[in-house]
Amino acid sequence: MRVPREPRNPLSPIRVNDRTPPGETAQVRGRRDTPEGFQRNPQEGTSQQPRVRQPALEAHQGRDGFDSPTARFQRATPVAGSAAEAGTLPIPAVETQQAAPVEGTAAEAVTLPAPVTLNLTGSVGNGGINNPADVRQVQDRLRELGYLSDANHSAEQVDAAGTEPITTQAMPQTMEALLRFQKEVVGASDGNISPSGPTAFSLADPTYGTQSTINPRAADPTAGLPVTTLPHPVAQIAQAIEAAETGNGPLGEKPALLRNGSGTPASFGKGQLIGGTALGVLAGNPEAARHYGLDDEALRSLQDIATATREAYTDIYERVPAGGDTEAGLQSRIAEYTGSEEGTRFREETGLGDEDIENMFRTAQLRRQMAGVSSREALLANPDAAANVEALGLGNRDLNAYLDRPAIHGEHREGFITRALLSSEHGQALRDAMTDNGGIPMSRLLIQENYEMVTSRGERELGRPLTGLEAAQATMIAHNGPSALDNFFASLRQGRPAEVTPYVTHAMEFWRP
Known about the structure:
Layout: E1 27-28, E2 86-92, E3 118-119, E4 124-125, H1 132-144, H2 150-156, H3 172-186, E5 192-193, H4 198-204, E6 227-231, H5 232-246, E7 267-268, E8 273-274, H6 275-284, H7 286-291, H8 296-318, H9 327-338, H10 341-350, H11 354-370, H12 376-380, H13 383-392, H14 396-404, H15 410-422, H16 427-435, H17 440-462, H18 468-480, H19 485-493, H20 502-507
Antiparallel strand pairs: 1-3, 2-6, 4-5, 7-8
Helix pairs in contact: 3-4, 5-18, 6-8, 8-11, 8-15, 9-11, 11-13, 17-18
């Protein structure tokens, strides 16, 4: 089933300042407050001026992740003579002798950490307020997740009833544990947790509501697929994309920060791969898939889950009337669907549950209610819309992002697909593939394939090789929203300046030929 193409988050922040905005709750229940429009800053507790940021990775090989799945894509034939001298950035060498696949390396079964509610009243760690009750919550959670040993927890545990701020010098092991958690999970290194920031969100529920958990190899630069060297032009493009996506901070899982209706980050890693894109990369590279213990049957199973989730998302959207329903009417629709044959099929085919049915309906309600609304204040003046937003747990800056750029509602759909994939029996293997070495091996494999695809297409359609500038622009379009490639190549055929997207304009700021 083909669904409308929706560019995925073309101008949303991926890494942001982490202060709690005025009027926002500081309670973290596995939902994320996403300060909108701030440049990525690995220092959670510092302030900075707003700046428009660019999106997460969206697609590959001419697929933007928003069409129904197709058969495994074929690797494009490189244009003769298009490979240049070797660059300096690595790419997974899944088709070379020195990169023999590792068979049977699927992730072992692990005990998933239970989510908790963190009620932080202020920031914790370096430069933090360090109220005793807040510090104790962080210490207890770091211990539960295995980052702070029992002995160190016992030696440094804070009296939650205390009134005097705690110095970081009084809890060196706690700080070391916090820094390691940030490095592996958030991709930050400042040792500061703000109440509604990315570290607090991941600390509260590192599963993000799925059947997967933290990949400790996300911060390991040697993890993942064996690597070789990218050709110089591709290396420069990869470097620009990575800088535009998440900056030059530490590795780590780097979950996307713009919240969506699923409650699960839509994308992870330096290249911000969405689940459907990561699956496509693995399906097109069987040796890479085997590295993570994913055989053909596993890949087909995951593809079926992605297809079912995408179709359910579209079907549920059509069940909510234009303009949205009343809160009571919406709840009635949710109950009817949940108890119907469609609800049973939803649970069987996607692996998701009744909460996800509700969230899909509420996401559809949000999209319907936002149509034609110009401001957050106007939206929330509608009691039914306000109730729906509260149920979804979206923050003010999330609402502003979706209102300012309606096209980014694709983030919701991709969040549900990622959630379903990571909730499957192969979810941990997929998450590991998406995040090993900060997701760099998979992302660079994808960028290489996109480069080969666009240069081959340029040769066919233009009768000449793309220039270095054109190849960089086209690869960036393919990386973020390949539906825009048609207009790009049409502009070149007609002798007009290359027609590019805002994402490309921003990413090109980091490109060096």
